[in-house]
Write a structure and sequence with these properties.
The chain is 28% helix and 29% strand. With 209 residues, the protein is α/β, with parallel strands linked by helices. Strands 5-4-1-6-9-10-11-12 form an eight-stranded mixed sheet, sandwiched between helices. A two-stranded antiparallel sheet has the order 2-3. The chain has a two-stranded antiparallel sheet with strand order 7-8. The structure holds cytidine-5'-monophosphate. Cytidine-5'-monophosphate binds next to helix 3 and strand 9.
Length: 209
């Protein structure tokens, strides 16, 4: 049995007390992976941004809002885990300054200066030691190439490549890519089916290896 950390859902970066930037992510794939992980007999800890899905009761869920909060919580939990599945879609940018009062309309364009947030998977990947890391990449062009670049940059052991069709859908179509650039599997079906197959591959290649 392994203890697995899952990052799931989007994060929010506030501009003022009522407005925020976010990423389109329902948390559904994270939820299906949590179910598959538990069904395979493993323990799961989820660090999740705001989502509507109901994670399995057996999962320990830590709720966060911002990417920095996701990183802090994930880093803390990763210490006790055997591996990470990074299925979250953290918001990659945050406003340099957050206004403490609601920004009032002036009729003029509003310019926002955005800076990058930390990359959760890359940070944990760099610190992983003997633990394993599985990343997800959503790509719209040069899909396999871009996903493999991310696999290497983020020190992942496997990268799951999906397209924008995955967003807010009950179905998914993915490729599981390995460090040597090979396609371990091409999977298609409901997110539940795809999650179960991903967990089988993670079990064979990373947990029982
Ligand atoms: O956003 P990107 O396509 O680079 O995401 C690829 C992987 O990196 C995913 O596993 C995602 O969860 C993770 N990621 C992250 N923190 C970010 C951006 C992405 O953990 N700020």
């Amino acid at each position: 049995m392994a203890r697995i950390l899952l990052t799931s859902g989007p994060t929010r970066q506030y501009i003022d007390p009522v407005r925020y930037l976010t990423n389109a992510s329902s948390g559904r794939m994270g939820c299906c992976l949590a179910e598959a992980t538990i069904a395979a007999g493993h323990e799961v800890i989820i660090v999740s941004g705001p989502v509507q899905v109901s994670y399995p009761e057996k999962a320990k869920v830590i709720w966060v809002n911002t990417t920095d909060e996701m990183l802090d919580a994930a880093r803390q939990q990763f210490k006790q885990c055997d591996g990470l599945i990074g299925v979250a879609a953290p918001c990659d940018y945050r406003p340099e300054f957050v206004q403490d009062q609601k920004i009032a309309k002036t009729g003029e364009p509003l310019v926002l200066q955005l800076i990058e947030t930390p990359d959760v998977v890359a940070t944990l990947g760099a610190e992983k030691g003997s633990r394993w890391v599985v990343g997800f990449a959503l790509e719209t062009e040069d899909r396999r190439f871009r996903a493999l670049v991310k696999l290497e940059k983020k020190s992942c052991d496997l990268m799951v490549l999906n397209g924008p069709e995955a967003m807010n859908s009950e179905e998914n179509q993915v490729e599981v890519l390995a460090k040597d650039g090979s396609v371990v599997a091409s999977l298609e079906g409901s997110k539940t089916e795809v999650a179960n197959r991903i967990m089988q591959i993670v079990g064979q290649r990373l947990i029982d290896a």
